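Lecture notes, unit on protein representations.

Consider one protein chain, 106 amino acids long.
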Amino acid sequence: LVAADGTTRPLDAADLRVETLAHWTSPRSGVRYPARWRLSVPSADLRLEITPRMADQELAVGTRYWEGAVAVAGSSGGASYSASMRFQSLLARWAASRAPSASHCS
């Protein structure tokens, strides 16, 4: 975790909470992907909501997976934030592995 002053603090998996808030099912493959997330780090008073810019961002390059552009909004220490960015599939896969109702795509 990087603070505003540039100092860093490593996080363990137990420091993070990821909740899947919605799912999207691909009309091409039938795979059900997590499609909106809440990421929080309680010890840092950090809470982010990650929302896909568009649902259909499934890639089929050998293994099918979801990766794409997202909007991020949230707060930390009472301050609000928002941004748009390229989302790597790692969080989607991590969240999918912990959501009992999500289909795995690998």
